[in-house]
């Protein structure tokens, strides 16, 4: 039990209010001065009213009215009633107690202290007045004053455990740990060893850096209830937390003798073996935990997450995958378990299987945006724009302000050549991403492609320029920007500079060599273009029909007509199906746009 639970909430003291109401209704002396009471008796119980003095019925009526407001949780209406009572009967402790009660409800604690102190000073023997004032002092951190009152309450009512608990709490708040421990010890003598008090004492000993006494308290709790497994686990946790790892093994093994299915004991043993680098023993403990479907998934997930940080070899990763699979199968509706399994499969390069699991995870719990991001990342890895489009649209329904999801959506549209939709989504992503230095250049690069696709060359060039300003070596931009400029036959000096830089950095990349050659071709440097196209064609695995067609065009310009036609036919066989290519083959001549 924490001190917060031990300390009573001043706003919820309904029992005291009931007692006060009872006092209001039944105590005859409560609102009457002695003179008034004698006069009432002398006049044969006839009720009279004098200036400044309430009759019994009037006092009871006002008190009942005020209590009615308190019970209806309308302290603002009760307060003026009680204040009037206190003004008319200033020597009556109950009236001040009621004023304090209303002020507490209104959270006016300093004013409540003044009223409560009046009640206490008028009747120091009333435990309700004392307790109210003590609680208010504690609330306002006047711990010394609160302790004085609780000490008296404990002395007068040693059988009341609540007062001892409150006194110990006040000592703790005042950093008087020794007095708090002494108070708990006295409570323990009358109550016996209890979990709540033992835990409080342990925390105090730990705050005093007295680990041995804290451990002794834990052992005392085990001795009191030797069949309770959790106490042995708690002792082990304390030992582990204080780097006394070796000592923690014994209580954990004892716990497992009592209950072989105690998950936390297996988890802690696995963690100990993990710390010692004993992966095999760690695996053995984890397997026992993971195989039990009746155990919660959370401790398994926690220890497996820690276990993943120690993996070094591929064999260890394979073991971890096996454990993750077991965890996922044992807890099929636990999204976190599924995600861990998917993460490991991604690490192994099994992208399709991993994506399937991520999709399963968001079906169970769609509110984790990182998992949606992982799905779309794998859509890209698998080169599946249709899936990326579907997943990004679903994710945007849940997270419309996630710029990365707009980026994936725009990328999917771009891959599908939906250029108008791509520009819209990518521009939206740019608004959401802000100033992210890693992502913004990527978005500008994609926007360059998309704007080129819709024929807005000014915006396309501007986007490419921004991308290169942030990342001058961006391969994608250098290639596409220079190639599109060559197709438009514009800014050919810039196109040459960019494509030349590209082939200097990637001397054997067929695509980049082709781009450079095509810029040379547009600039009518056919001989040099041929040289780089032939270099591009050395890598047969990277040669496309487009490269072969370009090679044919260059050969034609160099007067090698028959060889050019042969290359165009080869490009056709490789899958090139453009209208211009068919015309070139049919006529044996170039047909340029």
From TrEMBL:
Q: Which UniProt keywords apply?
A: TPR repeat
Query: By its UniProt entry, which Pfam families does this protein fall under?
Result: ANAPC3, TPR_16, TPR_19, TPR_8
Question: Which segments carry the TPR repeats?
Answer: 93-126, 127-160, 335-368, 441-474
Keyword Cytoplasm attached: no
The name of this protein is Tetratricopeptide repeat protein
């Amino acid at each position: 039990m924490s001190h917060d639970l031990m300390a009573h909430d001043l706003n919820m003291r309904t029992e005291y209010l009931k007692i006060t109401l009872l006092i209001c209704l039944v105590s005859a002396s409560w609102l009457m001065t002695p003179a008034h009471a004698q006069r009432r008796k002398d006049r044969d119980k006839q009720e009279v009213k004098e200036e400044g003095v309430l009759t019994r019925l009037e006092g009871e009526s006002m008190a009942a009215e005020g209590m009615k407001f308190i019970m209806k949780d309308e302290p603002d209406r009760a307060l003026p009633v009680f204040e009037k009572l206190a003004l008319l009967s200033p020597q009556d402790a109950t009236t001040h107690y009621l004023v304090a009660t209303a002020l507490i409800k209104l959270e006016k604690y300093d004013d409540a202290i003044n009223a409560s102190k009046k009640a206490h000073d008028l009747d120091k023997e009333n435990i309700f007045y004392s307790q109210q004032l003590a609680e208010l002092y504690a609330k306002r951190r006047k711990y010394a004053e609160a302790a004085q009152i609780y000490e008296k309450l404990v002395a007068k009512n040693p059988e009341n455990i609540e007062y001892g608990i409150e006194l110990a709490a006040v000592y703790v708040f005042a950093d008087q740990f020794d007095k708090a421990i002494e108070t708990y010890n006295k409570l323990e003598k009358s109550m016996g060893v209890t979990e709540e008090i033992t835990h409080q004492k342990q925390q105090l000993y730990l705050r005093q850096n007295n680990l041995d006494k804290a451990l002794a308290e834990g052992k005392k709790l085990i001795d009191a209830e030797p069949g309770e497994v959790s106490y042995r686990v708690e002792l082990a946790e304390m030992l582990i937390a204080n780097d006394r790892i070796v000592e923690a093994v014994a209580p954990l093994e004892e716990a497992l003798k009592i209950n072989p299915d105690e998950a936390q004991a297996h988890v802690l043993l696995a963690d100990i073996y993990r710390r010692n680098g004993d992966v095999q023993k760690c695996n053995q403990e984890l397997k026992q935990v993971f195989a039990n479907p009746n155990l919660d998934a959370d401790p398994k997930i926690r220890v497996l997450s820690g276990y993943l940080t120690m993996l070094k070899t591929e064999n260890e990763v394979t073991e971890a995958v096996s454990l993750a699979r077991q965890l996922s199968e044992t807890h099929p509706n636990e999204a976190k378990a599924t995600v861990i399994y998917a993460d490991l499969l991604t690490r192994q390069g099994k992208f399709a299987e991993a994506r399937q699991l991520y999709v399963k995870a968001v079906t169970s719990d769609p509110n984790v945006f990182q998992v949606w991001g992982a799905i779309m990342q794998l859509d890209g890895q698998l080169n599946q724009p249709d899936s990326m489009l579907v997943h990004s649209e679903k994710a945007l329904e849940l997270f419309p302000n996630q710029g990365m999801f707009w980026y994936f959506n725009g990328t999917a549209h771009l891959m599908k050549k939906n250029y108008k939709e791509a520009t819209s989504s990518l521009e939206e992503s740019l608004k959401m991403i802000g100033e992210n230095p890693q992502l913004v250049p990527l978005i500008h690069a994609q926007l360059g492609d998309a704007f080129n696709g819709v024929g807005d060359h000014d915006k396309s060039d501007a986007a490419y320029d921004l991308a290169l300003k942030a990342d001058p070596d961006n391969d994608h931009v250098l290639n596409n920007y220079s190639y599109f400029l060559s197709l438009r036959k514009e800014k050919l000096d810039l196109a040459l500079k960019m494509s030349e830089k590209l082939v200097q950095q990637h001397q054997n990349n067929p695509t980049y060599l082709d781009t450079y050659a095509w810029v040379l071709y547009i600039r009518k440097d056919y001989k040099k273009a041929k040289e780089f196209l032939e270099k591009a064609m050395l890598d047969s695995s990277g040669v496309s029909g487009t490269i072969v067609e370009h090679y044919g065009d260059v050969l034609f310009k160099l007067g090698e007509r028959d060889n050019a036609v042969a290359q165009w036919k080869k490009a056709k066989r490789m899958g090139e199906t453009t209208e211009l290519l068919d015309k070139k083959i049919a006529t044996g001549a170039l047909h340029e746009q």
